[in-house]
Structures are given as structure tokens and as C-alpha cells.
Amino acid sequence: MGKILFKDKDLVVPGDILAEGMDYLPSGGCVRKKDKIVADHLGLVSLNKRFVNVIPLTGNYIPKIGDTVIAEVVDMGFNGWYLNVGGPYEASLMLKDVSEFIEKDSDLSQFYNFGDLIIAKVSRVTRYSNINLTTKGPGLRNIKGGKVISVTPSKVPRIIGKQGSMVQLLKEKTNCKIVVGQNGKIWIEGNDSNDELKVTEAILMIEHESHTDGLTDKIKAFLESKK
Q1: What is the pLDDT of residue 28?
Q2: CA atoms lying within 13 Å on the CB side of residue 155
Q3: At what angle do helices 165-174 and 215-225 cross, to 10 degrees?
Q4: Are 74 and 84 in contact (CB under 8 A)?
Q5: How much is the pLDDT for 58?
Q6: CB distance 93 to 83 below 8 Å
Q7: What pLDDT, in 10s, does the model give residues 147-183?
Q8: Are 96 and 143 in contact (CB under 8 A)?
Q9: Which residue has the higher pLDDT, 42 or 188?
Q10: Phi, psi dihedrals of residue 164, rounded to the nearest 5°
Q11: pTM for the whole structure
Q12: Which residue ranges form the domains of the chain, and what is each CATH number?
């Protein structure tokens, strides 16, 4: 009979034994060593039935297909643009993957220029770390207006919340438009700068206190106190 040695949301360090026996399976941030599951990241334990996971508290963004990201244009060539997504490698946005129709030999800087921030999706990641983006899809576009803030990528799931509950709370209490990139970049646009500041403060609070219980109620109370 297997045994879990930590509770959900417990803080663990590399080398901690999370479970004993073969009844449980490692699903990320931990590995099996014989009949034990051992943490190989600093992070928080996440238990889901038979699966044991460690959610990292630190670390660079690792792109996955389907991720929404906010990326900065850092270079361009004949066939497209190269963007910084905050990971170890740049990503490519090719002409065939943008929503606009662009004629051959067009000045690409008229569409996306150096320093532009773009909401895009990761469409392809190869074993050789080639990353392709697309702007074909609802809400994918060049950012005009608002502000972009940065958080630790590993804290993004907490900011989004279960089934989007936390980010929905932020939107409802501030009337701001919010796009959370899996790479830790978050776009905020409100009716005025005060609304944007309120969202920013709430998001940074979530980032810094992501491991605490009752965080949703705390954020709700904070936002209501700022009216």
C-alpha cells in the first residue's frame, strides 16, 4: 500500500521524498527512484488522485503548444519576425502564421515593428527548441494601449485560478481587460490608470502569496476596499 508523505500545497525542496510505494505516479517536478517519488524542484506539492506533481516556485518559461504568450519583437527577416517569449530561445512568427494578408516584399515593420508586444499562441515546439507562434485566432494581435506587467511564469496558474476563477474576479471587480500570458507577461487595460494600478497590485499580491490558503477571499476583500 502506497503512502503520501506531504499534504497538498506543502512546500518541498529537491530530494524530499513525496510518496512511497507504487500506487502513485510522478507527473512533473518530481521523479521516481525505485519505490519512491522524489522532488527535483523547489515548489508546492499538488495531488490529483494517483498523480503527484511539484509546481515550481521559480524558473524560466518553457513553451508548450497551445500556450497564449505576450512576446516582444526583437528582430525580423524576409519571411517574418523573431520574438522574445521569456524562455531560453527566441520564437518565430512567420508570414503564413499572421492574421493579416501581407503582400510579397512588403515592409514588415509596418505590421509588427521592433519593440512591439504581441499576443500570440505557440503553434509548434520541436525537439531542437524551434518555437513557432501564430496570431491567427480570437484575441491574438498587436497590443495597443494598456500596460504589460511581468510575473514569475510558475505563478501564472494561481493568477488564472481554477477554471479562470481568479482572473475573472479581477475583471469583474475592476472592469479591466486582462490577458494572462503563460510566459508571465500580463496585459491590463482599464478605463483609467487607477483601475490598472488596482489590478497590478492585486496580481503582485497573488504572486507573492500564491502558496497561502484563503487567497481568493483576501484578493476580493482587497479589491472591494479600493473602490
Answers
A1: 80
A2: 19
A3: 10
A4: yes
A5: 65
A6: yes
A7: 999 998 988 999 999 999 999 999 999 999 999 999 9
A8: no
A9: 188
A10: 75, 15
A11: 0.75
A12: 3-56 (2.40.50.100), 68-142 (2.40.50.140), 147-225 (3.30.1370.10)
